[in-house]
Amino acid sequence: MENNLLEVHRLKKYYPITGGLLGRTIGHVKAVDDVSFSIQKGETFGLVGESGSGKSTTGRTILRLLEKTEGEVRFQGIDVHALNRQELRALRPRMQYIFQDPYSSLNPRVRIGEALGEALLDHGLLPQAEVRERVLEVMALCGLATYHVDRYPHEFSGGQRQRIGIARAIMMNPDFIVADEPVSALDVSIQAQIINLFAELQEQRKLTYLFISHDLSVVEHLCTRIGVMYLGSLLELAPRDELFLEPLHPYTKALLSSVPLPIPKKKRERIVLQGDMPSPANPPTGCKFHTRCPYVKDICRQEVPAFREVSTDRFVACHLV
Amino acid sequence: MNALVEIQNLSTYFKSEQGVVKAVDALDLRVHEGETVCIVGESGCGKSAAAMSLMGLIPEAVGSIVSGEIWFAGRDLRKVSKEEMRKLRGNELAMIFQEPMSSLNPVLTIGEQIMEPIMEHQGVSKKAAQARAVELIELVGIPRAKEIAKSYPHELSGGMLQRIMIAIAISCNPRLLIADEPTTALDVTIQAQILDLLLKIKEESQTAILFITHDLGVVAEMADHVVVMYAGKVVEVSPVVELFEEPKHPYTQGLLRSKPVLNQRKAKLYSIPGQVPNPTTLGESCYFLDRCDQCLDICRVKQPPLRDGGDGRKVACWLYEEEITRGK
C-alpha cells in the first residue's frame, strides 16, 4: 500500500542458546518469531503484550538497533536491514527511539542543552550557531522550561526526563518514532501529561508512532491500530474499537478482562488465566497460547494456527475463530 | 467497634542532604478486623513510609517516628519492646512487598523460608512445619507443592514468588496483612491471579488488609475504605464506592480524571498540571496549591485540616469548610 510508512514482513529475531563443553548452539530463543504488520503514515500503531512477549525486541529490530535473523523491514520503501553503515546513518534521523527510562540513556555529566543538540551537530543537520536556538524551541514545545537548558540530568524529575527523551527524538525532525513503554514508570498525574504531549506532537508534526506498552488503557487511548503479542508472535491485530469492544482471540479477551477498572463493585466476567507464560526458549507446540487457553482443543496442541485476515484489517491466529 | 489498627497523629521524618523530609505528616488511620483499607497516592506521598512505621521498620540511619501513637490490638506499638515487636512481626502483623525476589533468601529453599516463621512463632516441630509449608503452597494455588518446597527462589517466576511471599505472610494467621504494591511488578494476567488470591484469603480468614498502591483500578477492586495521601498528608478518607462516585478533594478528582479507563476513551486526557512539590521546602500553604484549579485565598496562607464530614468521609480541603461546619 502506498500509505504505508513501515512494512514488517515475516520478521524473525532469534538468540542462540549455547551449551555443552564446546559452547555449541543447542537451541534458540525465538524473541520475535515470524511477525508481519504495516504502519500507515500518521497513525499510532500499538504493540501490547506481557513481559517477554517480544514487543521491545520487535521495536528495536525494526529500527535496526538489533540485527534481524530473517524477514524484511521496509521504511518508506527502503529495506532497512539491507543498508550499509553510511546509508543507515543517513536514515537514522528520520526514525527515532524513545526509552522507558530516559535517565539511563543520558550522560550524567552532559548538560541537557548539549545532550539535545549533540545529534544535530553529529549528523550535520544544522550549523553550530543555530543549534542552541533549535534546542530551546524544541524544549518549549515539549513542555520543558527553557531556562533549564544548562542543567544536568539528575536535576530533573521523572516526568521531565521523559520530556527530555521525547525532545531528543523530536530534535531530529523524524517521520517515525518507536516509543518503548514511555509512560510506564510515571505516576498517573504525570503520565496523563506525557500522553497528551505525544498526541499534540503527532498532530503538529504529522508523526507516525509505534507505541509499545503493556498498559491496555493507555494503548486504547493513544493507538489507532493494535497488535497483541505473545511469546514472539502476533495473535491478533485490529483497529482500536474492534479490538477493545469485540476482541476475538482468547488471549486478548483474557488480557482485557484482567485490567482492574476504577469502578468499585462492578461485576465483570473475568477470565483468569492459569499459570505463567511459558519460556520463549521452549515454546509450546501448536498454538503457543494453548497451555493457558481456557478453550483449548486437540488441534491447538498440534497445529500452529495461521495468522489470517478474518475481516477487513482484522487478523487473528486462532483455530477457534 | 474498636479498630484493630488505630494510628493517631503519626509523623515520620527522614533526614536528607537538603533538609528534613516529612514523609508522613500527622497521619490518622484506622483498620477494622476483616476490612481492607487502601492507601493510594503517587511516588513519594508517604504511603510506604506509613506502612514501614507501622511495622517498626524505619531504619534509624534514615529517619524516625517523631510523634504519634500506633495502636494495634490494644497495644501501642511505639511503646512495646524490641523483643515484643519481633514477636508480633511475621506473626500477628505480616507484610508483603513489591519485589518478592529481593525479600527472599536466594540460598534457602522455598520450603525452609516458609517454615522459618512457623517454627519461630508457633513453636512447632520441624516435621509439622514442613507439612504446613506444603499445605500453604497448595493454598496459594501453586501445583506440585512438594517439589516447589524443595526449589530455590531463582527457579520460580515473579508471580509464583509473590504467591510464596503471601504463603509466608499468612503462615501464622496474621490479624493484619500489609501489602505494599504487591502486584506492581507483575503482568496484568498475573496481577489478576494475585488479587483474586488476596480476596479469597480475606474472605476465608477475615484477615484485615492494609493495601498500598498507586493504581486506582486495584483500589476499586480491593478496598472497603480508601485513604488518599499527597506529600505526606492524608487529603481524603472515604468508603470506596463514594470515593469513586463523588471524589471530594481536587487531587482525588484530578487523579481519577487523568487515568485512562478501558472502554471510556476521551479525545483528550485531563492532566493535573505541574508536579509534586519539593518535600524539603513545604510551607504553611496547602501542599496541593500550585496544582489546584479550585484554590481559594485561604489556601495560600493556611493548611486545611482533615475534617470529618460525619458521613464516614473526611477531607482536608478549604472548599468543604463551610459545608462541614454547617452540617454540625
Q: Could you characterize what this model shows?
A:
Chain A has a domain at 246-321. In chain A, 31% of the residues lie in helices and 25% in strands. Chain A has 10 helices and 12 strands. Chain A has an 8-stranded mixed β-sheet with strand order 6-7-8-3-9-10-12-11, sandwiched between helices. Chain A has a 4-stranded antiparallel β-sheet with strand order 2-1-4-5. In chain A, helix 3 (112-122) runs parallel beside helix 5 (158-171), helix 4 crosses helix 5 and helix 5 (158-171) runs parallel beside helix 6 (188-205). The model of chain A has no long low-confidence stretch (mean pLDDT 93). Chain B is α/β, with parallel strands linked by helices and 328 residues long. Chain B is globular and about 65 Å long. The model of chain B has no long low-confidence stretch (mean pLDDT 93). Chains A and B meet through helix 5, helix 6, helix 7, helix 8 and helix 9 of A and helix 8, helix 9, helix 10 and helix 11 of B.
* Main interface by residue count: A-B, 43 and 46 residues
* H/E topology pattern of chain A: EEEHEEHEHHHEHEHEEHHHEE
Number of helices in the DSSP assignment of chain B? 13
Strand content of chain A: 25-35%
Distance between the termini of chain B: 23 Å
The strand line-up of the biggest sheet of chain A is: 6-7-8-3-9-10-12-11
Termini separation of chain A comes to 27 Å
CATH architecture descriptor text of the largest domain in chain B: 3-Layer(aba) Sandwich
**CATH homologous superfamily of the largest domain in chain B - what is it?**
P-loop containing nucleotide triphosphate hydrolases
Number of domains of chain B: 2
- Structural category of chain A is alpha/beta
Q: Could you describe the largest sheet of chain A, including whether it forms a barrel?
A: 8 strands, mixed
CATH topology of the largest domain in chain B: Rossmann fold
Number of strands of chain B: 12
Mean pLDDT of chain B: 93
Say what oligomer this is: heterodimer
The amount of helix of chain B comes to 25-40%
Shape of chain B: globular
Strand content of chain B: 15-25%
Keywords (chain B): ATP-binding, Cell membrane, Membrane, Nucleotide-binding, Transport
Family (chain B): Belongs to the ABC transporter superfamily.
Membrane topology (chain B): Peripheral membrane protein
Pfam families (chain B): ABC_tran, oligo_HPY
